Amino acid sequence: MISYIRGYYIITVEGIGIERFLNHLIKNNIRVYNVKRVSNSKIELNIEKRDMRDFKRAYRGSNFDVKVKQKTGIPFILKRIYKLKGMWICALVSLTLLMLTSQFITDIYIQVPEGIKKEAIRKELYNAGLKPGVYKKNIDRKEIRDHIMLKFDEAAYVSINVKGTNIFATVTKKAETLKSTEQSNYCNIIAEKNGIIERVMPRSGNQIVNVGKIVQKGEVLVSGANTKSVPEVWASTFYEVSKSANYEDIIKRKTGEKKRVYTMSFYGNKHTLRRNIKYKDYTIDNKEYKLSLGNYTFPLRINISTFNEVKDVKIKKDKEKLKRELSEKSLKELEYIMPVSARVVNVEHDYKVNKNMLEYIVTVQTSENIAQVDHLSKAEAQQLINEQNTPKEGEEAIPQNPSKRPINDIRNEFENNKNDTDKKK
Predict the structure, then answer these.
(1) pLDDT tens digits for 212-255?
(2) For residue 344, what are the contacts with CB-CB under 8 A and spacing of at least 6?
(3) Helices 18-27 and 52-59, axial angle in degrees (round to 10)
């Protein structure tokens, strides 16, 4: 590598008595390396650029045929480049133009969610000054982001990233739930889980289910409730956990047959005295012995591997003990599954035996509030109110103006009763 940086010549020398010529070069402190014999009277060698003058002086007056085969190294490359002035001038101009053009935007890539038009975003970006040919350092991301979010109410955030000469604009849409539920206090009460209805306390809204009905998860229980007065729906729910285990254990028992294999290690080289192990199943016990004298430990180590033949033996477990263990595990898991507010009504234990497997089942019946709030949007709440105020067939619509309400309105009844009392007095 150093020779390549300094530059060197690959030279061929041909003649009789080449060895004497090499000795002459060495005596004159001329550095020669990579000497190769091409034929009996011809050799090839490398000489550094700085030793070429001394080599020419040593060569003068000799009868050898010397030729420069190749010039290699950075000095010769720079010399060739310097001669081609047009090439390096064009290279400098091209590099300058490349650096200048990399400071301007060439393409804009826009990513928008469903419901927002990409062409509308592109048009507003152009109006904000973000378009191809703009100088990158003149781009004000905050101003462009505020402009887009002001024009599009659906946009929650606009990210603008500059990568090279490209702009990547990503628009994030507002969540529909955040836009709708915050504007409404109305909700539906749905079933959080399956159960049998025990009682309903509809503090607000219209009760849909009655006591004794079996409901599924997600079913509407009370419609048109108010989030400030949430109803409660108590139902009988069931939780079941099953645990299974094998009541026959298989252990490996030694038969008494064993064979030993010795491995000697000396300075990392291992030598093993192998033996033919014909056991179908076995366990291995390894012991290592070191030879030491005082604080010095010799590099010799002996490892003894004992192969013990084993056979599978079945041992039956106590079923009653296994049942208790599985029951404790099931009840412990039920404690994590059941909510704290649930009231335990009944607990049933059962088990099944299938071949060597024992399956233990614990079923718990509880009473709990399964009401879950399902928020309504403003449009859904308005539609629900309209449906409730729409009169059924054969009924008259109740006017909003109190003076036009029917005679049997509660206020009219109260006034009539008051007049009757005054007359009696």
Answers:
(1) 999 999 898 988 888 888 889 999 999 999 988 887 777 788 88
(2) 338, 364, 365, 366
(3) 130
Strand bridging mode 220-226 / 206-207:
antiparallel
What is the pLDDT at residue 52? 81
278-331 pLDDT, tens per residue? 888 888 888 888 877 777 777 788 888 888 888 887 777 777 888 888 888 888
116: tokens are: 């927002």
Best CA proximity match to 376, nearest among 198, 237, 207, 190:
190
Question: How many other C-beta atoms lie within 10 A of the C-beta of residue 221?
Answer: 27
Tokens of 257: 């047959």
Residue 126: CB atoms within 10 A of its CB come to 12
> Measured between alpha carbons, how far is 299 from 301 in angstroms, rounded to an integer?
6
| pTM as predicted | 0.40
Are 199 and 234 a contacting pair, CB within 8 Å? yes
- CA 248 to mean position of chain CA atoms: 42
Q: Rg for the chain (alpha carbons), in Å?
A: 48
Closest CA to 225 of 344, 26, 343, 376: 376
332 by DSSP, 3-state: which? helix
Using an 8 Å Cβ cutoff, are 245 and 358 in contact? yes
Neighbour count for residue 122 (Cβ, 10 Å): 16
- Give 220-241 as a DSSP string: EEEEEEETTB--EEEEEEEEEE
Q: Three-class SS of residue 39?
A: strand
